[in-house]
Amino acid sequence: MSRPFAVGLAVALLALAACGERDPAAPPPAAAPATSGGPAARPAPPAPGAAGAQDCASCHERLHPSLQAAHRAGPHRGLRCEDCHGADHDRIFSTDGQVSSATCGRCHEKAYAGFRRSRHGRLLKEGKADAALRAHPAPVGSCNAVNGCHAVQRENADGSVGACAACHAAHAAAPHVARDPAVCARCHRGPDHLQWETWAADKHGVLWRQQPGAGVAPACADCHLPGGDHDDGRGLTRSVVARHGAPPTTLLEPLSRAEHDAARAAMVAVCTACHGKRLAEATLASADDARADALALCEEAAEIVRGLDADGLLSPRPKDRTDNPVAGGALVLGGKQIFDETSSRAERLFYELWMFDFPGLWRAAYHTDPDLVRWTARERLKTHLIELRAEAARLRAAAPPPK
Question: Which residue range forms the structural domain that includes residue 142?
Answer without folding.
Answer: 94-171
